[in-house]
Amino acid sequence: MHTLGRVSTLICLTGMAAMLAACVPADDPETASPQGAVEEQRSAPTAQQAAEFVRETEARLEVLSQHAERQEWVQANFITYDTELLTAEAKKELTAAQVEAASRAAEFTGIDGLDADTARKLNQLRSGITIPAPLDPAKNAEQAEIGARLKGLYGKGEYCREDGSCLALGELENILAESRDPQELLEVWDGWRGVSVPMRPLYARQVELANEGAQALGFTDLGAMWRSDYDMPASEFPAELDRLWEQVSPLYEALHCHVRARLGEAYGEDVVPQQGPIPAHLLGNMWAQDWENIYDLVAPAEVEDAYDLTGILQDRGFDAVGMVRTGEAFFSSLGFDPLPETFWERSLFVKPADRDVVCHASAWDIDEKNDLRIKMCIEVNAEDFRTIHHELGHNYYQRAYNTLSFLYRNSANDGFHEAVGDTLSLSITPAYLTEIGLLDEEPGSEGDVGLLLRRALDKVAFLPFGLMVDQWRWKVFAGEVGPEGYNDLWWQLRERYQGLAPPNERPADAFDPGAKYHVPGNTPYTRYFLAHILQFQFYRALCDIAGFDGPMHRCSFNGSEAAGQRLNAMLEMGKSRPWPDALEALTGTREMDGGALLDYFAPLQSWLDEQNAGRQCGW
Ligand code: X8Z
Ligand code: ZN
């Protein structure tokens, strides 16, 4: 899976191959030379030995990583006692090899005469492990078991009502999307959070072990290691995130203000106090990360809904495979080859009735050649239609870089991987739906404010959530808070960034972060925040290349082979170059920038400002 934490990357200053050798992590306050590295360097390994080491290591890790990937695929498709054990075994072996390679890489880092690729790959070996473990085999085994256990707990999670009937996450999510009864919403919101209560001690131990692993590699903690993978000094990355958040947060605040006011009208101001944070169970989504499901409650009174994509998909008799075929057709229209036959044979599209699977959508490239797959429990609705495009974006990226060497088979930075499919989803516009025959006639621009509001409930509402998850994790990894304080810190950050509050008093043993897939799954989350910024940059560039002229939100680059070629030029670079090079190849700019998102939503910002006139915003 793309999130498996391949041995991916690091490096420093942007785009200057000549600087790479000078950019060893030891320059950074968050990292230091691992013990023994300096002594080892005195025995003067040569550049040639370094290149040889990298070649051998890539070959070894490729074999182990493929095996672990296959094992993980089976576990995620059949969550059982045995698959959990087998996955932990495979993961243990892979992690041991990764950690060993990372410590050896440190011995070669910075030596004279390294070629740029070897220097880059050495840095990647050092920094690109999502969850390092201590070298001690017992601790490594313990960590692998905890990892599989946490994923299993989440995948098998359900909420059982007092009458004995049990609901899986998908069913709970549907209730949160559709019900407008605050009592029922609270029940399922709270019920799902029962799943994560037993995770807390396991998670706390995982943090200890992973930190020990990161420290042995010279990082202050696991958070510092994650931050070191963005082609810039790790210590500068948080400021880069702050910069992006400051650009877009006024738009979020305007959206929050409008939504709070309308929810107050719908549920009463005693349920939704108009001065403070919004109770988190009323936003149509289990984690309040995407608010599109409450569009009907906050929609502009003056405009008719332009169309309802869920209704169209259902009326036209789409099934899961039909939706995926439509996604594939979009990529084909850009000039990408069709997906391989094995994709259709081996993917999981529909939730099986008779066994536990991990339903959280994911994309896989098992052999890193052409064994592409997605795993999803697709329901026929607009949200899953978009998620299909998201997952396919991963698969086409994986295939585009499959000829590169092992350590370069990844996206430019992790935000890029998450942004590609979403970029195509932004292009699911009225014009596109008309072109592919799902709308009979392209609606006029009267309903555009509604379309933009829908989009903002998805994309803009997500931004602070995309940011806060790792703000929480980074503090946890840094030891700023212990297990007793995990949940309070989570809600402090939920309030600070999202302006949300828990709808009831959280029990002392609650571990609400664990109710979000990526926490027990140990998938870094800042990538999604970056992706939500980047996808608007990609989209704008592809629309320009396709020759679109008009308001940005109306553009579809469907059918533009010129756009497809430029996109592919970026994808096939994989992680071989610092990410600003990849960004420049597609967009002409070397900076991540919220400006494209703000331009896209400019008409909505004006509308929100009008709606909010006289309201007291903020929390
Ligand atoms: O986890 C995902 C994808 C798989 S990489 C379905 N996403 C995040 C989430 O669901 O929390 C996509 C958007 C954010
Ligand atoms: Zn993804």
Fold and architecture overview:
The chain has 24 helices and 6 strands. The relative contact order is 0.13. β1 and β2 form a beta hairpin. It is mainly α. The model is unreliable at 2-27 and 35-41 (pLDDT under 50). A two-stranded antiparallel sheet has the order 1-2. A two-stranded parallel sheet has the order 3-6. Strands 4-5 form a two-stranded antiparallel ribbon. It has 3 domains: 5-153 and 198-232, no CATH class; 158-194 and 239-306 and 455-515, no CATH class; 309-443 and 525-588, Orthogonal Bundle (Neurolysin, domain 3). The protein is globular and about 75 Å long. α10 (237-267) packs across α18, α16 (414-426) packs across α20 and α18 packs antiparallel against α19. The two termini are 39 Å apart. The structure holds L-captopril (X8Z) and zinc ion. Disulfide bonds join 160-166, 359-377, 543-555. The active site is at 391 (proton acceptor 1), 391 (proton acceptor 2), 518 (proton donor 1), 518 (proton donor 2). Keywords: Disulfide bond, Glycoprotein, Metal-binding, Signal, Zinc.
Structural key phrases:
619 residues; mainly alpha; Neurolysin, domain 3; two-stranded antiparallel ribbon; two-stranded parallel sheet; 55% helix; binds L-captopril; disulfide bond; metallopeptidase activity; zinc; Peptidase_M2
Mean pLDDT: 92
Beta-strand percentage range = under 5%
CATH class of the largest domain: Mainly Alpha
Q: Which residues sit in consecutive blocks of at least 5 with pLDDT less than 50?
A: 2-27, 35-41
Cofactors and ligands: L-captopril, zinc ion
Could you say which structural class the secondary elements and strand pairing correspond to? mainly alpha
In the CATH hierarchy, the third-tier topology of the largest domain is known as Neurolysin, domain 3
- Kindly state the percentage of residues in helix: 55-70%
- Record field, number of beta strands: 6
Radius of gyration: 24 Å
Number of domain units: 3
In whole angstroms, how far apart are the ends?
39 Å
Strand order of the largest sheet: 1-2
The arrangement of helices and strands along the chain is: HHHHHEEHHHHHEHHHHEEHHHHHEHHHHH
Largest sheet: 2 strands, antiparallel
CATH architecture of the largest domain: Orthogonal Bundle
The rough form would be described as globular
Question: What's the total helix number?
Answer: 24
